[in-house]
Design goal:
Oligomer: single chain
Distance between the termini: 77 Å
GO cellular component, one term: periplasmic space
Strand order of the largest sheet: 1-4
Protein name: Lytic murein transglycosylase
CATH topology of one domain: Lysozyme
Family: Belongs to the virb1 family.
Shape: globular
Largest sheet: 2 strands, antiparallel
Radius of gyration: 30 Å
Number of strands: 4
GO molecular function: hydrolase activity, hydrolyzing O-glycosyl compounds
Helix content: 55-70%
CATH architecture of one domain: Orthogonal Bundle
Keywords: Signal
Length: about 675
């Protein structure tokens, strides 16, 4: 009788002994290995640091001793490659199991939930629960059924998004995904609900930007729906609404916060700033319940003042922003401090006040973006005050956040022209593999990713990551998502893990673009911001695919390239990137290779960019990164400001990964 313990066996090796010859490899019957170690030793399973070779003569007591030895050996560390593509899968997923899941998804899509359940029962009890989850996700079921599932399976991710249920739960037990406009009458049961309840529902729908649903209700309310109808007109930004402003609807405007809010928003966007609108804003109730809406109105008003350089209102703008420090909650307070500092710096030229506000901004900031932004502008304020040492200290603080736009500007200020990420090898132990193997949601997410159902897979991947208390296991789940082709989930996972575990391949994916591709780094940077590498992404404005192209724009681009256009093709990564690349090339040519202007036009449209060139000046004529930062911050669209800054920040990281230096592309 012989037995041996072999360390780090390759996938195929021949072991000689006096009694037998055992061949370890993919073609070997591994029943006894599984019996000894309670796992499968196929290359796709946990890579054992030690494998026990035995023959049929091993006694029970010796087998028990060997098993205990194996458990001790398993505690020894093994090294896993952190590139994502080489990570070892901790589960044995055989073809019948994968095929069964694909059939379950196929039947679910057809609405044949009985067939889904039949297949699930053959696969195992966890698949039976998954079949229930899939039905709740796809079918029109009652809220009671959803609640029962949550009560019976509290550890599972919710099959229904909470934000969508919030609108309807107070008046209906029906899941809102089923509330397509034509079904609204059935779900809301107009014949039994009081009119006040319907008006309340319509208003809540407006606050959640579900305008078409609110309009459907308002049309069934007659005269009682006039206020809601007026709000809808303002929200749709119709131009000739002055007649509404003097109609009987406005007689009770001061008591209707929603109507006042929508009217003032419309007025600021379509009329010149005046004392009258300021007076109306001042009369709005300072209700804590509406603090976000009030902050939006104030920010909109202040933005118009600064954009059009209405100097007579600068003091008013500063006072309004200062009032918000007592009104908003902690999550919005950093933005208020930023705006106060910006007004003080750019409009009032009060550098002492600016320095104070940017310091407050830094102290209340919670994100890397906000920290670096606060520190950068505090440094600029200190420069204005002649405090060179204080300015240098702030620049160094901002530079700690080197993946952000302002962190990178600070690096340039400090004489560093390249962004280099830490690329330490991540060490996953066998214990990490075992714990990951026991994570059911990680396995489901991985299998759904392999089945190319990234939309559902993402829910399980993120749930698995957020419910583990180990950064290493979260890192493994993230890298498994990347290795299965689910780049979107890997990126989201890496962002969630953050500084606890740096995963460069997941944080800055390089899928879909060839090494030699023109504008490779720029395209990757745009995709990372546009869709986070979600090839099926679709925005509220109907922008589609990796590069978030509007169908109307895509049709024009396809015509330029003389290729066939079908909207469904925009979900194909290669086709989407082809059109997006062509659009970027056109914009770069239009703006003489100014990347900042091309990005602004890609996000907000060339028409808006041409207006900004008239009102803000031409950034191509600016001489320093600091001046360019000021120009970007003067753009009146917050989304476009953020978009340009994040794409440039991504670009500098991708350039660093390719050994290139930073370029702001003025």
């Amino acid at each position: 009788m012989r037995c041996a313990v072999f360390k780090n066996l390759p996938h195929t090796r021949t072991i000689n002994s006096r009694v037998s010859q055992v061949k370890v490899g993919p073609a070997t019957d591994r029943g006894r290995w599984r019996e000894a170690l309670s796992w499968d030793t196929t290359p796709s399973s946990v890579p054992p640091s030690y494998v026990i070779a035995e023959n049929s003569m091993i006694t029970g007591s010796l087998r028990h001793l060997l098993l205990r030895m194996a458990c001790v050996f398993l505690m020894l560390p093994s090294i896993a490659n952190s590139s994502g593509s080489d990570i070892v899968v901790p589960w044995t997923i055989r073809e019948p199991e994968m095929r069964g899941l694909s059939k379950m998804l196929e039947h679910t899509n057809k609405g044949d939930y009985k067939a889904t359940q039949r297949i699930a029962k053959r696969l195992g009890k966890e698949y039976v629960v998954l079949a229930q989850w899939l039905r709740l996700r796809h079918d029109c079921v009652s809220q009671e059924e959803v609640n029962d599932f949550k009560a019976n399976h509290p550890e599972w991710p919710s099959p229904v998004e909470r934000t969508k249920t919030a609108v309807m739960t107070s008046i209906s037990e029906v899941k809102p995904e089923c509330g397509r406009l034509r079904k609204s009458a059935v779900f809301l049961n107009y014949s039994t609900l009081p009119r006040d309840a319907l008006i309340s529902v319509a208003n809540r729908l407006l606050w959640t930007k579900r305008i078409r649903a609110a309009e459907y209700i308002a049309n069934n309310l007659g005269e009682e729906g006039l206020t809601t109808t007026a709000r809808i007109s303002f929200r749709r930004n119709k131009k000739d609404l002055d007649s509404i402003a003097v109609s009987p609807v406005f007689a009770s405007m001061s008591s209707d916060f929603g109507l006042m809010y929508d009217y003032i928003s419309w007025y600021i966007k379509n009329r010149q700033i005046s004392e009258e609108i300021l007076l109306l804003m001042s009369s709005m109730p300072k209700d804590q319940k509406y603090h976000r809406e009030l902050w939006y109105l104030y920010r909109l008003y202040i933005g118009e003042i600064m954009y059009y350089k209405l100097s007579r209102f600068y003091g008013t703008a500063y006072a309004l922003a200062r009032d918000c420090t007592r009104l908003v909650d902690a999550s919005t307070l950093p933005e208020v401090h930023w705006l106060l500092g910006w007004i003080a710096l750019k409009c009032l030229e009060d550098h002492e006040a600016a320095s104070t506000h940017f310091t407050d901004f830094y102290n209340t900031a919670r994100t890397q973006e906000h920290k670096s932004k606060a520190a950068y502008w505090a440094a600029r304020s200190a420069e204005k005050l002649g405090n060179a040492d204080e300015s240098l200290g702030w620049f160094r603080l901002a530079a700690l956040h080197k993946t952000t736009f302002y962190g990178q500007l600070s690096l340039l200020q400090l004489g560093v022209n390249k962004v280099l990420l830490d690329t330490k090898t991540i060490r996953y132990s066998n214990l990490h593999y075992l714990r990951c193997r026991k994570n059911l949601f990680a396995k489901i997410g991985y299998m759904l990713s392999r089945a190319q159902r990234d939309d559902i897979a993402d829910l399980f991947v993120q749930h698995a990551i957020k419910t583990t208390n180990s950064p290493e296991i979260a890192g493994m789940i993230t890298e498994l998502a990347l290795s299965s082709g689910n780049t979107h989930s890997a990126l989201k996972g890496a962002e969630y893990i953050g500084s606890k575990l740096l995963l460069p391949a997941s944080l800055y994916p390089q899928q879909y673009l060839a090494v030699h591709d023109d504008h490779k780094e720029i395209m990757l940077s745009m995709i990372r911001q546009e869709s986070k590498f979600d090839k099926k992404a679709k925005s509220r404005s109907n922008a589609i695919g990796l590069m978030q192209l509007l169908p109307s724009t895509a049709m024009e681009l396809a015509r330029d390239l003389q290729v066939e256009y079908q909207e469904s093709n925009l979900l194909d990564p290669e086709y989407n990137i082809m059109l997006g690349r062509h659009y970027l090339t056109k914009l770069l040519k239009t703006y003489n290779n100014s990347l900042v202007l091309a990005l602004a036009a890609y996000n907000a449209g060339p028409g808006n960019v041409n207006l900004w060139l008239k009102n803000l000046g031409d950034p191509r004529k600016l001489e320093s990164p600091g001046e360019l930062a000021e120009w970007i911050e003067s753009i009146p669209f917050p989304e476009t400001r953020t978009y340009i800054q994040r794409v440039l920040a991504n670009l500098h990281v991708y350039n660093g990964m390719s050994g290139k230096i930073m370029t702001l592309g003025q």
